[in-house]
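Notes to self after the call with IL:
- keep both proteins in one doc
- input above output, always
- annotate only the second one for now

Protein 1:
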Amino acid sequence: MGRFFIVLGLVALASLTVSDAYAMGDVVRAAASVPVVAPIALAALTAVQMPRSILSMPRAEGDPAKVLANLTKAFEDFKAENETKLNAKADVVTDEKVERINTAVTELQASLDSMATRLASAELGGGGSEGPVSAEVRAYRGHFASYFRQGDGEREVKAYNVKAAARTGSNPDGGYLVSDEIETTIGRVLGKVSAMRQLASVRTIGGGSYKKMHGVGGATSGWVGETGGRPETATPKLAELSFPTMELYAMPAATQTLLDDAVVDIGAWLGDEVSLTFAEQEGAAFILGDGVSRPRGLLTVPTVADANWGWGKVGFVASGAAAGFDGDAPADALIDLVQAVRGGYRQNAGFLMNRKTVATIRKFKDGQGNYLWQPSIQVGDPSTVLGYGITDDDNMPDVGAGAFPIAFGDFRRGYLIVDRAGVRVLRDPYTAKPYVLFYTTKRVGGGVQDYEAIKLFKISA
């Protein structure tokens, strides 16, 4: 009899769509709590082709092609259920079903993006030979490892003042610059975790700040005949932009016993300890930083309604409602946001927002009934809104009164990140005995470099 119920359950569930499976989710979980029914419920749940979130799988594991197929199927189910919701107007069950599928689509897209990131990171990491290494670099790497494990006496500091890659390796006051392979690992994580690092221009400098000039108009020209006069034109106006670098630090700790263990990969340990911390701090600063002891963030520069835009401010387009999107035509303001960016910038433009905002926009349609949001069509491609790619950044605010939850534009031309070359490590065996602290610092700055290249979306009437 038990086998009969199992077969019957599987046959019934095999015909369910993703949305149907979602509606069954609570029933199956409740049934699983009953000892006799649990095996049947769990077997049936596993048999259904459901989004990965239901099975609580790690987002970055699995076959990308299967995740892409599940994403496409889930989005089709989402559209079908959302149409039912729009027609029914007041169906609580349908509302809940739509929200569950919407969450599944978000997580599937995030899973696909994570896979693409890991693939790209692996490609950046190489895997082949790094090529010939000079004697100076080998000596520096060896002494850095020795310094990391045992520290330096005064005599050793003077004896091993190794210069590698045209820079001073040791410094009695400032510690050591990490070896090149560790810095590459940290840089790779920074570029892949920090959304703005993926989008913006990045420049490495050797000093404390970077300055550049930007033309802001004023120059004139005109047409003349072959023998006509050439009157003097107006002098172009230039704006000086300054990007000072600020110090970012992390201080991981290790026991001396760990450091004495020759099996431990010191470079990998340090990279793992500080890279994600640096990336998270940077990511927040590039969006929300106030420019005091940190970079100036995109959302902290002066803003103005786009109709009154002028150099030195970022223009914004209002949503049309005080606390959200316009209820009658929510897509109109997004179209206005895209069109607010000049054509030359739109060629390489994209959206920047968090996943909650993406989930909200996923329900919007244009005047022809087409959904504004579209999923990735292949691994490595982002999802899109109005045909422009979306980059997720959890540092972007949620939709709310007065907030700027969406940015759109050419971020490579609009925002500049400045890195001071080198990541420095200072070994401290005294402050937190028996632990050895590694005060690790890098210097980075950032800010808007072209105020015309990026526009913001403000929740406002």
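Protein 2 (the one to annotate):
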Amino acid sequence: MITAAQRFNRTMLLASAPFVGMIVWIAFVSFTIQAPGIDYAAGGGASTLPNMAEAAAPTLDGLEDAAVIAKEISASMKKVSELYTKTNASMSAIMTTAKAQVSRPALIYDKRITHRLGTVSDSVTSTKLTAQLFRIKAQNFSGYALKVKLKAAGAMDMTLGKDTFGGSETTLAAVKRTGAIAGVNAGGFADSKGKRYPLSTTVVDGQYVSGFEASFNDLFFVGLNDRMELIGGKFSSKDQLDKLKPQFGASFVPVLRKNGVNLTIPDKWRTSPLRAPRTIVANYKDDQLLFLVIDGRNENGSSGATLEEIQLLLTRYGAIDAYNLDGGGSSTLVFKGNVVNSPSDGRMRPLATNFLFFK
């Protein structure tokens, strides 16, 4: 198939060919003026001058013809230049239109999933990311949704508490310390000897914090790879996870949704607790991320959302994969320097890991 660029180049070649030929012809044709011999010794000096003018006339006529040809070539080349300029402008317009058509399906998809989330209550847009905040109001609970489109490396990261293995800090403290625009609590943790350690397999800056631990029971690993894509699931070996090139991530339980299908929730997590504050991370087919932070008064099972209700929300929102992060008093969402949800402890809980977003 001949492309538009190839068609344009052929047109320019055909248009230029006659003028190239003329230039070559002029280069090989020489115009010389030769004065006829004047025999002053024979005494005919004065009578020979008219003969010189007559002899030079054909040569001068040739020069005049060449000048006319040169003017015609110059005028024609000017027209070719104008044609090139117009054609180049047309090609640019065609490319702009083509790019718009290519991006249109993505814009339509984004508009559809955004509409499902409701009205944007706040947002941040930069060269690195677009983050949109939505309110969630259901029959039995309320909370927030954060939809994030990552555009460049460094737009999202995960940090250890105070950047120390065994350290802890609130999500707000982590946001302020790093200069992030937003933050969400990440994986689970275990306390030991006054320190708070991240639960199971944890990756920061592409490195395993305390080594790899094969998935057991309902534990999973979830994080981002080197292409800013959400990766997650159960992994039986380090090599299996390494193939996905994790850059950062944490562990918790259970997996809620895979490939657009809700998974069966293990009995243990179905009722223990029944209702609670929740934090969820999910993705869309265009690799945008969705975080849900659901509020509840406490962790005794009387307030908040069930995991089945979260799955219903994820189905309504059109999410592809989804993972349940640490909830209860850990559930915290910070946006533009403010804690937008209501942590159930009545104050923010110091955590071992937090997801952070940078503009």
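Annotation: Residues 4-106 form one domain. The two ends are 43 Å apart (CA to CA).
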